[in-house]
Structures
1.
Amino acid sequence: MCLAIPGRLLDRRDEHGLAMGTVDFGGVRRDVCLAYVVDEVRPGDYVIVHVGFAISKVDEAEAHRTLALLREAGALDDVESTDSVGTGGGA
């Protein structure tokens, strides 16, 4: 099963012409490609991340609701324990 996880964008940068950023998933930070949302997001915004790509912007309240549901279902425990949040390694 693959999950798309919401996280808060901490920074943006250019890496060899590719928009990248650091996203915080409740204390776990990962580098994420921002190519799909480059014109939509700024640091502090929440994004939905799937296999290392931010695929959409989401409002903060929705991000928190989604994270709460994932925690309740135990899905975040599985993903975080594999140290693969945002990288697709837990898929």
Note: The two ends are 5 Å apart (CA to CA).
2.
Amino acid sequence: MKYISFISIIIPALLISACNLPTGAPQDPQGLVFTQAAQTVAAAAGSATPAITSTPVPTGTIAVASTATNTPTPCNQASFVADVTIPDNTSITVGDGFTKTWRLRNVGSCTWTSSYQLVFDSGDQMGGPASQQLTAGSVAPNGTVDVSVNLVAPGAPGTYKGNWKIREPGGAVFGLSTGPFWVQIKATAAPQADWPTYEAGDTGPEVFALQHLLKARGYVLNADGIFGPITEARVEDFQTDKNLGEDGIVGPETWAALIIQTNQGDTGQEVRAVQKLLKDKYGYNINVDGIFGPDTSNAVKDFQSDNGLAVDGIVGPNTWRELVSN
């Protein structure tokens, strides 16, 4: 009992003293003995307290798993760069031909080759092809290309829009990320030419034409291209029969009453009048034989296209007016 009391007194004193010793100071043997004794007593009493350890907190950036996903670039896709020609709502005379050119960028991952096609998608085709080659060369990703198509403004005034896309060699059709690219125009009425005036002393293809028209109406005269006294007299006769002013001058009212509509398959003096104008005045290589065949029809259509008229091959009032006025 005395031993235990001694230990209970000395150990706390030693512990207090130990706390005041500098860290790492050498211990004397007596101190070691008391330390060992204290440890023995603590073990015997079962009162050892487990050491508390702290886990170091890591410093620096903490990696967090990303939830973002990468969207793969599509093989084929285009983006619009500019309207090189014919911006939206450009006014074009009805029947006039025009060339639309877009500048497109290849924003896909595949190269466009000569096997790619420009294709009509929807809307107003305006005389364009169903498909045509997109490019004669190649367009690498992020490259640009100017794509052109030849079109014709429709024959009636109004707003027209045609949508176009691209077809890759495997047959898949694609366009911009938002859909097709397009051409949009405003077809406007052709400005009408004034009827010319012809009278005694005039010569030329127009006089030939009016002489042939008088012959087609049943009046007897020679078609020689010279507006002489006989032609003047026949004009006055025609004006009398049509209740027009009898002045012997072929002006707007007389022309409007004198012309005869004609088209492919017709024959007669009115056809000769058309052929004479097309051949001698405009240089078309056709025969003046009074037969409205394919060659004459093609010449009429070319003339109509060149002069902003509806390309129908029919020589009506508008085409007659252009033929004798230019």
Note: The longest strand covers residues 97-106.
3.
Amino acid sequence: MNKPMNPQPDATQKWRHLVEAAIFESNPNDLSRRIQDAQEALMDQIEDSFLTASQSERQSMINAMNSLRELRRLVQTPGSQIESDIVN
């Protein structure tokens, strides 16, 4: 039995996985790249499905993007608590 092709769940799982990987990354050498990868995958998903996504899916994408932006800001702030937590 063949399952119908549905790229949407895979794309959703991909950006969610990448966002989680960025949030939980503990290696400071990998963190910026993980954030970038997650933002790119999320932007692709937003471009592909924002108008057809449910309200809760759209809100999840917006929340994830805001979280990634805040994480990037914290990482780039010299002397921030997150910077010292990652280094130590």
Note: The chain has a mean pLDDT of 84.
4.
Amino acid sequence: MAALALINGACVANARAEVTSVYVAGKGKYCKEAVVNGYLDCFYASFDACQKRYKSQDVRCVPNPNSNTLD
């Protein structure tokens, strides 16, 4: 069980490292994940605004990793 926790801890650490290597365009609180991996278009003030803009497409909206405000 200790080994499993260590493996999970390593996975979490790797996930955090990936977030810091993302290129963020814009200063909005929410972002559209771009087709290019590791690139976020952050031009939306709310999650709903992002989702509404891309409702007919298979697009994922996520919080801006550079934003300190959570809704």
Note: Residues 23-65 form one domain.
